[in-house]
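User: For my dataset I need records formatted as: sequence, then structure tokens, nothing else. Please produce one.
Assistant:
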Amino acid sequence: MQSTEPVKEPISIDPENLRVGSFYWARRAGADDAEIVQVTDVFGAAREYWSIAVMGSDQHYSPRDFDFLIRLMRP
């Protein structure tokens, strides 16, 4: 018997709405687990140079590599 419940699309933040210096819960494309990431402008202030730093790593990624789930607020 098939489920009659609608399929829920994941809620994500449009990368155009990201803020430099902010932290987000995000999920890498194709991954099941979310992780905390930070939007950085270490390579330049223009939006096309923004990168994503993963906590606990020295790697930087493209914002297109992630689905941003929620922005973390500062205490």
